[in-house]
TrEMBL record:
Belongs to the cytidylate kinase family. Type 1 subfamily. Keywords: ATP-binding, Cytoplasm, Kinase, Nucleotide-binding, Transferase. Its EC number is 2.7.4.25. This is Cytidylate kinase. One of its GO terms (molecular function) is ATP binding. Residues 9-219 form the Cytidylate kinase domain. GO terms for cellular component: cytoplasm. It comes from Candidatus Purcelliella pentastirinorum. The keyword ATP-binding applies. It comes from the Bacteria. InterPro entries: Cytidylate_kin, Cytidylate_kinase_dom, P-loop_NTPase. The lineage of its organism: Bacteria, Pseudomonadati, Pseudomonadota, Gammaproteobacteria, Enterobacterales.
Amino acid sequence: MINKYVPVITIDGPSASGKGTICKIVSKILGWNILSSGLIYRSFAFFLKKNKIETCVYQNYDLLIKYLNIFIYRGLFFYFLKDSNILNQIYTSEIGNIASRLSVHYLVRKLLLPYHYFFKIPPGLVADGRDMGTVVFPDANIKIFIDSNINIRVKRRMLQLQKNNIYVSFSRLKYVMKDRDNRDCNRFHAPLFCSNDMFAIDSTLLSVEQVIDNVMQYVYKKLY
């Protein structure tokens, strides 16, 4: 059940726009709970890959839902959250690409939606994703959209992957990320877009500190 009296800040945006980093810092400043929606979908994608389930499952709707129910009823998402080794594996381009393909299915999104609400507890929640402010928490107190130039985003993701000893060429990663952007923005259910009630920030030429300053000024203005 959703607690309507818990304040929510949503931060949406494309891959490697910086929304995850901003979400972590804002939640720490406010002392609020944090949610990364992508982690939920990536966890399911990791489960499929780990069990060597063929990629045809993405097209076989009944089979896809069968494995999704196994994932849900075993409580594997919360199990994965406790394993740092698994978390490192979840944040790869391959897992992200699988997660993006899974997220276009309406029933997948519907069945995973309740997981988001477990995190909406006092004193508040800061949630990042691609449809946090438009679908998951449409009545959020504050909605933010962070975007950035694709080349900058590719460089950021490369650095993130290299920290986990994963190396990929710039051109290959750019192709994968542009393909994912296209899927995320054009999927029929819960597409990625900046709605009129969102505070939009282009982080291309901004440091993390500058983005945080902009976000927190807006947050304090709206909340207090």
